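Take a specimen:
=====
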Amino acid sequence: MHLDRRRRIGAVAAATLLAGLFSVPAGHSAEKPHRIVENLDRGLVAVPSGEGTFLSWRLLGTEYARYGDAIAFNVYEDGRRLNRAPVTRSTTYQDNTPGAGTGTYAVRAIVGGREQRPSPAALDFAQGYAEIPLAAADGYTVQHAWPGDLDGDGRYELVVSRLAQTRDRPDLLEAYTLTGERLWRVDLGPGSYTQVGGNGANDPAPAAISGSTAIGGYRNDDNVTVHDLDGDGRAEVLVHTADGTTFADGAKVTAASPANQFVSVIDGATGTERTRQPVPDDFVTDGPSGGHFGIAHLDGAHPSLVTKLVTRVGARRGAFRILFQTWDFNGTDLTRRWKYVVPADSGATSFHQIRTVDVDQDGTDEIADGNYVVNSDGTLRYVVDGAGHGDRFHIADLDPDRPGLEGFAIQQAELGVVPKFPWYYYDADTGERLVTGRHPADWENDTDIDVGRGSTGDIDPHHPGYEYWTSTADVTAPGAGVYNVRDGKVSTTTPSVNFRIWWDGDKASELLDHTHVEKWDPATETSAKIFEPAGVVSGPRNATPFYGDLLGDWREEILAETADHTALRLYTTTEPTRTRLYTLAQNPEYRLGWTVRGYLQSTYTDYYLGTETRRVPKPTITLPEGAVSHDDHA
């Protein structure tokens, strides 16, 4: 089902009208609304490297939107300038002066020939990483982490979920600063480990965060997210709660039945509840529902909460029932924007993670859930013809020579039905399949087929655009190997298939699996490890709690838990680069990718970022109304 032309025109007209309410930086068109982004600081980090100290900092999206490339930087240690000429081609600097790393580093932006105020002092990575000690919780392990600026100072804090390894104690939500201070703890109550399915319909929840188990045990749920919804500069924490949930101040949720569940807004700085609303009870007869939380800019400007409920009818592998509800928070009240129950006969089927992304690039976000997309107004946009359930899918500008965004998804057998194809590459705006994988002949009647992983990334610079591949082990199978979006099959072997990461100095993708980073060599069709930290472990799905551009320049950090489960460690690259990009954290699609955890997947920008990238488009973004920028010169 495609969005018809009249609806497209109406959406663009509405977006254009809304855009008029916001100031438009020089060089921008007024065709899209300016979406509100976080007011981040410079994100400076200092890491021992080589003979001295490696420094890395942010070029902000807000300043790139305003000034483009007409901005440079000076680097200081204890007030003494280190660079001879202004730094213009990177947002990194290697300090090899005698005594490097013993002082306090700062950077100053240079705009129009004038030096701005100094940045906050660098975050210290003296051990090669930032250590974040975890509060005592015997027998618990960290599952997920959500970044958010909880106190409004321009630096991210982390909200983490901690799960009892024996699943007989409540899940915990905790908040920490990047310097290791614990801010608060919320006990998610007995529903987080006792509500593990209804009528035998849902999977148990060994890897779910509460709220998810509190409303049912779909094992890849999250039902937590972190974002500033009311525009006051401080992020809220949104979570499903139930009877017995205890907030940081000791206040408890009381309800007559475990079936009574809520969406709670938690103050990000204190861990106390600000307000709550009941969860829709449409699926209560099918037992507890699982699902996902995320954030979308449904009006193009302001962030809204997206909640997805999903259950399975009858048996464990019964048909999916799916409901979306979206919410707005104004600082006091949490109000419903719209509710949408996906039609049972539509062909839409739940995947293990949603994505919120502007698939038609009109400025407003849609909600993608594997083989279908829901529009920003709560209507069905399309269902991919012939596609069924799968675990992972990806949406990005995979082909820079093709207009718009593309997607790549994998499939598995469901309800005793063998999928018509194991994977598909498609148009993210319309759902049209562009390339379709083929099954080996001996899979045609295999009801246990499960293509468990699929990934995309620009791993071969000899071919334009991204490559995509799956975890299919049989290299003789028609769908095995690495494919390029333009050139078809380019390798008969495959690299690791967990996550794509930007780590070294080039714009191509590296690969993150467990806690190590690999580089694919297309000449030898093999991978080599280029980063492997000691003393840390991955969790379920061979994933770490988080990876992404938390600080420093545009490349991504890795957050991993120590093997003894007593601390988190944050690692950042020290590879030099001559590529300068605005921070990925202020790119719309990329930042929204952090707001959904679930069955973790790679995060992407909404512009093509790969080997052929020469200049990236300016983002259409703005700070919250009345915000004083942390970048000194907005």
Q: What stands out?
A: The longest strand covers residues 320-329. The radius of gyration is 23 Å. The chain has a mean pLDDT of 88.
